[in-house]
Amino acid sequence: MSEGRNFNNLQDAGGARSPCKEPLGIDIGQLMDRRKGGLALSFQRARLKLRILGSDRGELIRYERSDVADARCSRYLIARTADPQVLKEILTKTLGVTGVVRKARTFYLIGQTRVHIDEVEGLGTFLELEVVLRERQTEAEGKAIVENLMVEFGIDKRELVPEAYVDLLKSQERRAHGTRT
């Protein structure tokens, strides 16, 4: 099991931005591009999601994060599994499914910051900055790193999206069907 804290924000990139601007002077290498599908399970204080990375690889992730349009702290626990389909069946039958998110993620690393470009089915393109805090690093230091990168990338705080993808998809579905809840 893996445990950690990170600072992240989410921005609708609209296909117009790439984190690979040369003026940054930082060595940015593309590490992976993988397709992911996952279930979103909701609880009062935290979220639970199952990432299916392959037929024999998956991750069950529990995380807590506030839904605010700002850099915010996320606390998470990750349990890896070699049998994600059985785990999916157990979770679905026990807890139910609140939504399914399908995305392709391209991942870059700038220092301790993970830069994700997500192509989310039904929503579009998003950029996420995720600073993985070091053991003695404060939340204020993580937030400062995110805010500095936002300036470097030309991201305005008004472009930040507070909701998780699954919540955006559910809102979109409600609007399409003319319902509010």
Descriptive account of the structure:
The chain has 181 residues and is an alpha+beta fold. The chain contains 3 helices and 8 strands, in the order βββββαβββαα. It has an 8-stranded antiparallel β-barrel with strand order 1-5-4-3-2-6-7-8. Strand 4 and strand 5 form a beta hairpin. The radius of gyration is 17 Å and the shape is globular.
Briefly say what this structure is:
The protein has helices at residues 84-95, 139-153, 165-177; strands spanning 2-12, 30-42, 47-54, 57-65, 72-81, 99-110, 113-120, 124-132. It is an alpha+beta fold and 181 residues long.
Shape: globular
| Uncertain regions spanning at least 5 consecutive residues | 14-34
Average pLDDT, rounded to a whole number, is 78
Strand-pairing-aware structural class: alpha+beta
Annotate the secondary structure layout.
Layout: E1 2-12, E2 30-42, E3 47-54, E4 57-65, E5 72-81, H1 84-95, E6 99-110, E7 113-120, E8 124-132, H2 139-153, H3 165-177
Antiparallel strand pairs: 1-5, 1-8, 2-3, 2-6, 3-4, 4-5, 6-7, 7-8
List keywords for this structure.
Hypothetical Protein Pfu-838710-001, 181 residues, single chain, globular, alpha+beta
